[in-house]
Specification:
The protein is mainly alpha-helical. The protein is about 60% helix and about 0% strand.
Length: about 350
């Protein structure tokens, strides 16, 4: 049975290497890498231990995000898979054009990038704005640097930042639509939607969401923020299979807690620590974006510094800026200084080696 499955997958992969179905070739390669041991090593980042190459990394992230997308689809309705289909379609198109111009095959990286685009946008985002974000993010966040493994910024966050600056009201997460009756069953009831505010937005108006809503969900915000427990479960899975490095995440959470208490007496009313962690996009950003092996630093020490930098920036931005959510800005800023962090870590290591000589 296994041999027949392997033969079928290999056959589909071979048939889609060229021709009109080439854009789905990375999907079959990713399935093959996930079900069977890859017979070749990764040529560029991300480099993963235990025979995990880039395709297996991609497939693992997709698995981790599936429960979040499933709950979002059940809660918000058909627009979630529609946005995913749009992200994949546009992603394959853009990457296909660049791959054709470079005489290369399409990278399977768009499978992860497409999911991240959906997770970091509110469901109320107009589809034309979402489409612009996908195209802009892939072109200027990935392809201008040479494609997967060469980009210094997270492509999904680049697209999100561009449309946030251009149409802030249309893509801001404080307000969202909660379909009444789940999926499409509310059609004909006379109730189109119920509007509510995200936990961080509620806090700024003097209200605090209960812990059950913060942790279990469903709660307001972007699509991927619907349930903290599902984000944590997916993140722990990625750590367990060694797809992401725990050092960045540990340092990020530690820095958030430390900065939270250090700034307790500043900027008015103190935010509850539970709201700091579970009220916005911190968990989603930590497990699915800050831990990206391509845009993150390389050494162990650098990962600690990188994570701590993001965590401190998140708390500082939340305290001293009018922005409700600041994880996006913090991660992109940290991406920009990764070369400096890596260089500083190497310099410190050399000084330490000289000291012991």
């Amino acid at each position: 049975m296994i041999k027949l499955l392997r033969k079928a997958i290999d056959g589909l992969s071979e048939r889609t290497k060229t021709g009109p179905l080439q854009f789905i070739h990375p999907v079959f390669e990713a399935v093959d890498a996930a079900l069977f041991d890859p017979d070749y090593a990764a040529a560029q980042a991300p480099f993963i231990r235990d025979a995990l190459n880039a395709k297996r990394y991609v497939f693992s992230v997709v698995i981790a995000a599936m429960p979040i997308l499933a709950l979002s689809t059940w809660f918000y309705g058909y627009k979630v898979p529609l946005m995913l289909f749009l992200a994949y379609g546009l992603g394959a198109l853009v990457e296909g054009i660049f791959a054709w111009s470079r005489k290369e095959t399409i990278s399977e990286g768009f499978l992860v990038t497409g999911i991240l685009f959906v997770l970091i946008f509110p469901v109320t985002t107009p589809l034309w704005i979402f489409s612009i974000a996908v195209v802009f993010g892939i072109i200027f966040g990935k392809e201008v640097y040479g494609g997967v493994g060469n980009n210094i910024f997270n492509p999904a966050l680049v697209g999100r930042l561009f449309v946030f600056i251009s149409w802030p009201a249309a893509v801001s997460p404080p307000e969202y639509l909660k379909p009444a009756g789940r999926l499409l069953s509310y059609v004909g009831t006379g109730v189109d939607a119920i509007t509510t505010a995200s936990p961080l937005a509620l806090f700024k108006t003097g209200n605090i969401a209960d812990f059950h809503t913060l942790f279990v969900g469903p709660r307001a915000g972007c699509i991927g923020e619907i349930s903290s427990v599902l984000i944590i479960a997916g993140g722990l899975y990625l750590i367990a299979v060694r797809v992401v490095n725990w050092r960045t995440i540990f340092a990020l959470f530690t820095a958030v807690a430390a900065a939270h208490f250090a700034l307790a007496g500043f900027a008015g009313k103190m935010m509850p620590l539970s709201l700091e962690f579970f009220g916005g996009g911190l968990l989603l950003g930590a497990f699915f974006m800050a831990s990206d092996p391509v845009t993150g630093p390389s050494s162990k020490m650098s990962k600690y510094i990188y994570g701590a930098f993001i965590g401190a920036c998140v708390v500082i931005f939340r305290r001293f800026t009018p922005l409700v959510e600041s994880v996006m800005f913090s991660i992109l800023l940290a991406n920009a200084v990764v070369p400096l962090i890596d260089a500083g870590s190497r310099h410190f290591r050399k000084l330490k080696e000289k000291t012991y000589v």
